[in-house]
Amino acid sequence: MNRSELDPAASPEAAFGAFLRSSREARKWTQEELGERVGYSGTHVSAVENGRRPPTARLARELDRALGSEGVFQRRARELHSSVLLEGFAEYVAHEATATELRLFDLGIIPGLLQTTEYAAAIAAGAVRRGSITQDQADERVAVLLRRQAKLNREPAPRLHVVMDESCIRRPVGGAAVMAAQFDRLVEFAALPTTLLQVAPYGIGEDRAFDLPVNILTLPDRSLMSYAESSQQGHLERETSSVEPVLTAYYQLQALALPQADSVALFCRLRKELP
Questions:
Q1: Domain boundary among 65, 81, 97
Q2: For residue 205, is it within any domain?
Q3: Tell me, what's the pLDDT at 14?
Q4: Which ranges of the chain have pLDDT less than 50?
Q5: Based on CB atoms within 10 Å of each CB, which residue in 37, 93, 117, 222 is the most buried?
Q6: Alpha carbon distance 273, 267 (integer Å)
Q7: What is the pLDDT of residue 77?
Q8: Does residue 6 belong to any structural domain of this protein?
Q9: Is the dihedral of CA 35, 39, 44, 50 positive or negative?
């Protein structure tokens, strides 16, 4: 059996998975043997160990029972779920790193995969000032984002389609210098051979397809997955048949959005207008 290498620093889920693997291997159990003891399949255990599935409270409780770890797995699971990552997001990020095509829609702020570090840090700092997250959680949020961005620099590069609501570029974040660098990043992104970047103007009005951020992935086996979230809840859809109507709505949105050349011209004009 091929044994994948784990990087505990990659994410909170990866750290949990690496600890689970070391605990299991100390008992000389296979994933299937541990799965039988905790009431899950060996495939599920593998997914948790590799950071593709976050551990549920029930699984953590059963792991503590089977491995005699006196609440260690339950404590680690609580810490993981109290992070800034919404439900389903960690699994989405794991698939994002292997997807052949990504389609993103965002409103209010620049999509994370296109943010500069300074822009991302300014957004996180605002959440700290409001008291909605701690500084440690802000640091984690930025670190997760940078890891996601780094994983897109792979060969072959995934195709990345992005539609931003006009509100994303009208909202000032971090001051003029931060916004100037962010506009430069958008122009550079649009020039890449595997990307498409469009702005959905305010004039679309009620014909805008989405009222919440939506991400759609095409996976290597051509299946589809989507992730959508509000400020407090994330939803991951794994069934291709359920994602297909979302993809159709995305195509409709792209048809109404500004062409890429016009979108880039808008970025450049707004950059020149910065104080």
A1: 81
A2: yes
A3: 83
A4: 1-2
A5: 93
A6: 10
A7: 82
A8: no
A9: negative
